[in-house]
Amino acid sequence: MAKPISILHWLPISLAIGGCGLHPEPAQPDVAANPATSAATRPFPVDTLYSLLVAETAVNRGQLDIALANYYQQAYQTRDSNVTRQGTLLAQHMGAAQAALDLALLWSDLDPENPEPAYLAGQYLIAFQRPDLAMQQSRRLLDLDAQTLYVGIASSPAAKDKNTGAQLLKEYRELLQQHPENIDLLLGQAALLESQGDLADSLTSIEKARDIDDKNLQARLFEVDILYKSGRPDKAIHRMADIIKDDPENSRLRLQYARLLSEQDLAKALEQFDYLARSNSMEPDLLLARAMANYQLNRQVEAQDQFEQLIFLKKYTDTAYFYMGEIARSNKKTDMAIEYYRRVEDGNEYLPAAVRSFDLLVSENKRMEGQQWLTAQRKSHPDLSIRLYLIEADVLLQQGDLARSLAALNEGIQKHPEQIELYYARSLILEKQGDTRSAETDLRFVLAAQPDNASALNALGYLLADNNTNLDEAYRLINKAQALRPEDPAIMDSMGWILYRQGHNEEAILRLQRAFDLDPNDEIAAHLGEVLWANQQQRDAESIWKKGLKIKPDSELIHNTRKRLQGS
Predict the structure, then answer these.
(1) Contact indicator for 83, 52 with CB cutoff of 8 Å
(2) In whole angstroms, what is the distance from residue 394 CA to residue 388 CA?
(3) How far is residue 11's CA from residue 501's CA, in Å, rounded to a whole number?
(4) Picking from 1-10, 122-131, 311-320, which range would have the lowest pLDDT averaged per residue?
(5) What's the rounded Cα separation, in Å, for the pair 568 and 560?
(6) β-bridge mates for residue 146, sequence order
C-alpha cells in the first residue's frame, strides 16, 4: 500500500501556519527554521555561510524576496539538499511558483529516495500544464511506493485536450498492466474516460478501485459523481447516504449530500441543512443554503428570517435583499419589494433586481421615478450602462410604451454609439412601429460589424420576407442564421415563413411545425396556421390557431391573421 504524503507535516511550523496565501508578518524568527544552521550539515565556504546568514536575517525581517534569492543561488551552488529544501519551502510559502518548481526538481535530484520533493514538483508541473513531466514525477513516486499524482494529472485542464487525454489514457493503461491494483491509476483512468465522455467505462474503472478498497473515500465520491452525471441520481444519492452512515459527523460530506439531494428532493435536503445547523446555525454558507431551500419550498416566514440573519451578518446581502424582494412582491407588498430590490448593489442578482424594481415602478405609474433611478444606476455602475439601457427599453416595450422604449435606446446609442446590441434592440422597436426602412438600416449596421450575428441575420431576413421584398436575399440571410444556430425555433419559424413567401408551402409547413413543437407560441402558431390555410388545410389551420390561443388568449397576431384570411 502506498505511503501517504502530507505536505504540511514536513513544512516548518511557522510556514505551515502562514501558508494560506496571505502576506507574512514582518518579524517571524522561526519562519525558515534557522536555515543557515540547519543547512550546515557539511562545511561550507565563508561566502556561502554569509549568504545563508543573510537569508536567515532577511526571513526574520520579513524580506522574503531577498531570502529566496539567496537560497535559490546557494541551492544551485552548494547542491545541498537541506539548503534546497529550505529554498523550496520558502518559495512555496511566497507563491513563487516557478522558483518552487525549479528548487523542488533540484531537491528531488539531490534526494531521489525522498518522495516529498517529487510530489511537490509534480504538483507544480500539473499547475503549469505539463502533464508529460508530471507523469515522470508520478512514476518516481510509484517506484517509491508513495502517494502518486495520477488522479491530479488526469483531472487537470491540460488532460481535457483530446490528444493529450488520449496519450495519457494510453500511458495509464500500460501502467495498469504492471500495477493492476493501484487505486490512483484506476481513478486517474476513470477521470480521463469521463473527460472523453465515456461514463460507462469510467464507472467500471471506479468499481475496480472499490473492489480493492471498498472504503476509499475518493473512489466512493467519484462514483457518486459519475452516477449522477450518468442520469442515475437515485443511485448516486443512495451511495452518498452510505458514505454519510460511515462518517455521520463529517459536516463537509453531509453538506455535499444535502446539495446532491437539493437537485431531487428539496425537503430532504433541507433536513440535512437543518441537521448541520445544529452545531453552527449562523455559518453563512449554511444559512444561505437553508434560506434558499425554504424559499423554493415556499416557506416564506423561515426564508425571510434566514435572509434577515444574513443581512445582520453582512454576508450574501445582495442575494438576501433580492429574495426578500421576491417574497414581498409575491405578497403584493409592492413598495417593500421595490425597496429591497433597490438595496441590491452588485453580484448576479443586481440586474434582475433592476428589472423587477423598474417594472414595478412603471406598473405603479411611477415611470419617471424609475427612469431617474436607472439614470443614477448608470452613473454608479458605468460598466453596466448598456445593460441598464436595454432593461429600460425592454420594460417599457413590455408595458406597450413603444415611444419611450425607442427614446431610451436612442439615448443609449447617442452615449454609446459603438455598442452594436443597442442598434439591434432599436431595430426591433422600429419594426413594431412600422418603420421598416429604419429597422433595416440598423440591422445592416449590426451585420456590417458582426456578419455572423445569427439574431441579426434572422431578424433582417424575416423583415424582408414579411414585407415580401428581396426574397432571395432574405433566404440567404435566414439560411446562414440557421447554419449558425440549427436548433433555434425562432430561426426555423423565419425559414418556414420565407419558404411560404417563395411558394414552397409543403416544406414551409414542415419547418413551421418543427418550430412550434420546439417552442409552442402564438407567433409561430399564427404563421403555421396561415400557411396551412393557404395550402387548403383550413381545419388544420383552425386547430393550430386554437392551440396558439390557449397559450396566449389575447394574441393580436392570431386574431388579425384569422380576420385577414377569413374576411371577418
Answers:
(1) yes
(2) 10
(3) 76
(4) 1-10
(5) 10
(6) 3
DSSP string, 270-295: HHHHHHHHTT-TT-HHHHHHHHHHHH
**307 half-sphere exposure, CB direction, 13 A CA radius:** 23
Grid coordinates representing 234 are 437515485
State pLDDT tens for residues 34-51.
Answer: 443 344 456 788 888 999
Q: Average pLDDT of 127-155?
A: 95
| Spacing of C-alpha 425 from chain mean position | 27
Instruction: Tell me the one-letter amino acid at 12.
Output: P
- Per-residue confidence at 27, pLDDT binned at 50, 70, 90? very low
Residue burial 459-491, b: 16+ Cβ < 10 Å; e: rest = bbbbbbbbeeebbeebbebbebbbeeeeebbbb
The per-residue pLDDT for 306 is: 97
Q: From residue 215, give the alpha-carbon distance in Å to each of 9, 152, 221, 255, 285.
A: 24, 20, 10, 19, 29
Question: Structure pTM?
Answer: 0.70
Q: Which three cell numbers stand for residue 55?
A: 537569508
The residue-averaged pLDDT of 335-363 equals 96
- Of the candidates 162, 161, 168, 165, the one whose C-alpha atom is nearest the C-alpha of residue 136 is 168
**Residue among 103, 90, 15, 82 at smallest CA distance from 55:** 90
Phi (first) and psi of residue 410, to 5 degrees: -60, -40
Give the integer Cα–Cα distance in Å for 346 and 316. 10
Residue at grid coordinates 413598495: 335
C-alpha cell at 247: 462518517
- pLDDT at position 6 over 60: no
What is the distance between the alpha carbons of residues 238 and 257, in angstroms, rounded to a whole number? 10
Please, which pLDDT band fits residue 568 given cuts at 50, 70 and 90?
A: low
Which amino acid is present at 439? A
The CA angle 99-103-108, to the nearest 5 degrees, is 150
SS3 186: helix
* Chain segment 393-410, per-residue pLDDT in tens: 999 999 999 999 999 999
- Partners of 472 in the β-ladder: none
Tell me the C-alpha distance between 183 and 212, whole Å.
Answer: 8
pLDDT of 23 higher than 50: no
d(CA 198, CA 185): 17
Q: How far apart are CA 210 and CA 179, in angstroms?
A: 15
* Helix and strand numbers, DSSP H then E, in the chain: 33, 0
d(CA 351, CA 383): 12
